[in-house]
Amino acid sequence: MESSAEAEYAAFEEKVKRTVYLDNLSPQVTEAVLKAALNQFGNVTSVQLIPNYTEPKNIPRCALVEMENSKQAREIVLEMANSPFMMSGQPRPIRARAAEVEMFDDRPRKPGRKIHCRWLDPKDPDFEAAKKLKHLTRKHAAEASFMLQHQLTEEERLANQQAETLKANYKKYDLIESVLADGTANRLARRYNM
């Protein structure tokens, strides 16, 4: 039984080596968009969007993407480290790094690992450090929430601006197309000897 647990954990570690952690994703990025964007580096085996449980909308802000082999995963990390990589036309560059064992919810238990939990006594010196850490975590969560709201507002503004520009360009194209189609351009050219 012990060897099967070790084999299962070894297979899991291989999966971790083939997986890339992507962060700073736009809310418009879906599983299909990620697959299409990363297929240029190799075959995407699976995509797991990780929801943000601290925000009310459960916006996926990061993902674990498993590639066919570890070489493809390393290539993605190197490429995104060297140049900005954007998806869905949003102004936020996506960050990538190699996945770590702790990032997976479905990880098997490491053979031989034991976890011991205990309550801290308020007189224990580690109690003050734990209290400071808890306060710092809450402060960081509040700051991250504020920045997320600001970023989403900016992205929405940009998406609206892009949509308006697209509509205006379509109207111009439609006007030019109608002038050419009904012969107005030819008549004007003859009239002004052009």
UniProtKB/TrEMBL annotation:
Residues 18-101 form the RRM domain. Pfam families: RRM_1. This is RRM domain-containing protein. One of its GO terms (molecular function) is RNA binding. It comes from the Eukaryota. CDD domains: RRM_SF. InterPro entries: Epigenetic_reg_gene_expr, Nucleotide-bd_a/b_plait_sf, RBD_domain_sf, RRM_dom. Keywords: RNA-binding. PANTHER family: RNA-BINDING (RRM/RBD/RNP MOTIFS) FAMILY PROTEIN, RNA-BINDING (RRM_RBD_RNP MOTIFS) FAMILY PROTEIN. It comes from Davidia involucrata.
